[in-house]
TrEMBL record:
Name of protein: Bifunctional GNAT family N-acetyltransferase/carbon-nitrogen hydrolase family protein
Ranges where the N-acetyltransferase domain occurs: 11-212
Domain CN hydrolase intervals: 231-488
Organism field: Dyella humi
Alphabetical list of CDD domains matching this protein: NAT_SF, nitrilase_Rim1_like
């Protein structure tokens, strides 16, 4: 049987094409009823006027989300209007190629796929398009479906919307828009008269382009997509404790993933050897090598768990590491990187520590390739790998802007070796380095008795970054989550015009780093 290609995305967001029209007719009819769904003529017209502004989300080959936009002048975008007026009857016929605002005329998500943050992905696509085109912002009319059933309590649409804005009331749609950085500039009366839940009203919402002016160039990297100006990263300092089942492990991992997603993180990172916690389920008396081989039996469940969470919570997950048996019988320490498009990528620890080799019989991998993400290329160095400068240099030479370091250290001295070296990698490669470690104890688990951890997010050391080169730091040995917004254009400035310019100033005439095996 052919091996499934795990690197292939399950979920993709792409530009709509004419061949999508029949599926989009069915999707909008399912959401709005056949009477109010979009006709094929409307959908083809939208693509004809502004093809780059129409997006679909596919999940396992099925179109489950759709959004439509067009360009318009500010005077029209910010003035009172109805949906029929401003969209030209849904045809996007008022599209102005020179318009300085993006108008969001539609977002549709299949009811069976809600909860997977499809709408959030579509709004992010709009924002990226707005910034790529250097437009002033996005405007649209947002539904207020809680209005009809609450109008008697609040007395007016204005009072209801005010309560939602102040957080005293939650509206299923408007609260979502506000959480995605849209602001209300007024109410639109008779926006869609047939929207009885909203009593015909819509909230007039805008999002202003934060990167409109004076944005420096982002470094050229091997990425098929435009990079965001800022990436929000979460790193988990994970407490190892006894559990009774795999479901207990899954519940803890999902808890932290949910937290990171609620804070709109693009990445969440977990520690090295996080899955050793699973050995406490049966707590058998096994030799260290037998223990690791038994743990490897959980590999399919571990991969399925993290991949499912990445898609469900719309977040890229650096899933720590997990001992994995190879086809030849060797055990490698593998980091599974599960992207929010459903693809799974494996990165192996290259340098097992002496105790990993001697106690667990773990052998090292031989490849260090970057992973292309929607936030640019990333690299993974598992714990001890961070203590070898060649690995980080190889990843940065491939275009990595962020290096993730899942680690597992037992005492402070071991932790500091990893941290000091990671800080050096950030400085010498002018990149961000994210550390994620375990804390707590697992008595009876061989070679995993005690943990010392202090997770952190490190930056280069220059005026553009945090004073001490530390974007976020934790208190040692407590369970917590750290967040930091990492500005990618800051790396561009540092590399091109910083106080020191390590990447530019290398002496290629004196030395080189040559990788002997081709990265997979």
């Amino acid at each position: 049987m052919a091996r499934k290609n795990e690197n292939a995305p399950k979920l993709t967001l792409r530009q709509a094409v004419p061949g999508d029209v029949p599926a989009l007719v069915d999707l909008t009819a399912r959401v709005y009823t056949p009477e109010w769904g979009h006709s094929a003529e409307m959908l083809r017209s939208q693509q004809t006027h502004f093809p780059e502004g129409q997006f679909v989300v596919e999940y396992e080959g099925r179109i489950v989300g759709y959004c439509a936009t067009f360009r318009i002048d500010e005077s029209l975008a910010l003035a009172p209007h109805t949906w029929m007026q401003i969209t030209g009857g849904g045809m996007a016929s008022r599209h102005n190629p020179a318009g300085n605002w993006l108008y969001g005329m539609e977002v549709v998500v299949h009811p069976d796929y809600r909860g997977m943050r499809i709408g959030q992905r579509l709004y992010q696509a709009r924002k990226r398009l707005c910034m790529d085109l250097k437009l002033r912002g996005i405007s649209f009319g947002g539904r207020v479906p809680g209005l009809a059933r609450n109008i008697q309590r609040y007395g007016s649409a204005e009072a209801y919307v005010h309560a939602v804005v102040e957080g005293r009331r939650r509206d299923p749609t408007l609260s979502f828009q506000l959480a995605n950085d849209f602001e209300i500039i007024g109410l639109l009366r008779s926006y869609v008269p047939s929207d009885y839940e909203s009593l015909g009203y819509a909230a007039h919402l805008v999002w202003r382009n934060p990167a409109l002016l004076d944005q420096p160039d982002i470094p050229a990297v091997q990425s098929p997509r435009h990079l965001p100006d800022s990436v929000r990263v979460a790193t988990v300092q994970y407490l190892q404790r006894r559990i009774a089942s795999f479901d207990d492990f899954a519940m803890q991992v999902e808890y932290f993933t949910d937290i990171a997603a609620d804070y709109s993180a693009d990445f969440v990172a977990f520690p090295e050897m996080i899955t050793l916690q699973l050995l406490s389920i049966e707590n058998e008396e096994l030799s260290p090598v037998e223990t690791i081989r038994k743990l490897s039996q959980y590999t399919p469940q571990v991969k399925e768990l993290f991949s499912r969470l990445a898609v469900r919570y719309n977040i890229n997950i650096v899933a720590g590491s997990h001992p994995t048996e190879q086809p030849n019988g060797d055990i490698h320490n593998v980091c599974y990187v599960c992207l929010r498009d459903g693809s799974i990528h494996e990165r192996e620890k290259l340098h097992p520590t002496p105790s990993e080799r001697n106690v667990w019989n773990i052998t090292g991998g031989d490849s260090a390739a970057t992973i292309q993400t929607d936030c640019g290329p990333i690299g993974v160095m598992i714990c001890y790998d961070a203590e070898f400068p060649e690995v980080a240099r190889h990843l940065v030479d491939q275009g990595a802007l962020m290096l993730f370091v899942p680690f597992c250290t037992d005492v402070r001295e071991g932790y500091l070796r990893v941290r000091y070296c990671a800080q050096a990698r950030a400085i010498e490669n002018q990149c961000y380095v994210i550390l994620s470690g375990n804390v707590g104890n697992l008595p009876g688990v061989n070679n995993f008795d005690i943990q010392y951890g202090q997770s952190c997010i490190l930056t280069p050391s220059d005026f553009l970054f945090a004073r001490d080169g530390v974007a976020a730091d934790s208190t040692p040995n407590i369970e917590t989550v750290l967040f930091a917004d990492l500005r990618l254009e800051g790396l561009a400035r540092a590399r091109n015009a910083g106080t020191v310019q390590n990447l530019k100033d290398r002496r290629y005439d004196l030395y080189e780093t040559r990788w002997l095996r081709q990265s997979r």
